[in-house]
Design a protein that fits this description.
The strands form five sheets. The chain has a two-stranded antiparallel ribbon. The chain has a two-stranded antiparallel ribbon with strand order 3-4. It has a two-stranded antiparallel sheet with strand order 5-6. The protein folds into three domains: 121 residues, Herpes Virus-1; 88 residues, Herpes Virus-1; 57 residues, 2-Layer Sandwich (Herpes Virus-1), CATH 3.30.40. It starts with 25 loop residues before the first helix and ends with a helix. A hairpin with a 7-residue loop joins strand 9 and strand 10. The protein is built from seven helices and ten strands. The protein is of the alpha+beta class.
Amino acid sequence: MSKRKQKTSNPEVEVCMLCRRADVHPDACGPMLGESGLCVHKFCLFFADGLYEHTAGQRAVLQIPLDAIRCAIEEAEQKHCFVCGDKGASIYCAETGCERSFHLPCATDGECVTQFFGQHRSFCCEHRPQQAVEAAPEQDTNCVICLEPVGDKKSYHTMVCPVCTQAWFHRSCIQGQAMSAGILHFRCPVCRDRMQFRKEMHLLGIQIPARRPTWEDKESYETLHKKHQRCDVGECLHTEGREQAEKHGPWELLLCTSCAAQGTHRLCSNLSNSLSSWECDSCAGVGT
């Protein structure tokens, strides 16, 4: 059995009934779904021959009839992956007349393309879409993402921006960038084109998740959305502490109009009720 297809020896670890894998990153095959005794990866379901049509415009994966999923699993048991040789190959090449089938985790090793849009079509190494742009990397060209050499020509693993033809990168590198940037911020690393670049990457099998970029996750930026709420002058006069404030009067908290990262009670800085703005010492240039 191929090393990439080994089943887990841990009975508590769920194994996908389509790709027969447990040791696969969720970005590659999606989350594991389970219902009525079935255990499958989300994207293994989407790309399994004939199953995506059951979604009919709805994104709810588990709306696919259970009988159809069971049938796909049974049919896959009769097919061998042309990449690793094991059974359970549920993904068929979309090219008419081609009989190659493969597992989703084997797609990259077999230089296959799976398109994460539209009808979620898949193509084997012989029939996969190619970049039409006429370009070749100059000698000693490096990937603009990892800065490692890209080789001397376009290939499955070496890609180029179709717009500027100056940005060369590895497939794995641009896939990692897509997963990080999400649909809103994914673009050419050099010319910054979005529309044509994104369309080309979609066709070539780059998965671009429809979500916000990972650098904007709630936990990382939660503190940036909180308004400063303490008096920062050298001697705060409030008897109950610097964090206490009122909406009006001497204990109203004013924030620095320049940085908003420093605050003061009106009384602590001897500010009259008629003043509506205040600057901290740093922003006002006190002592410089």
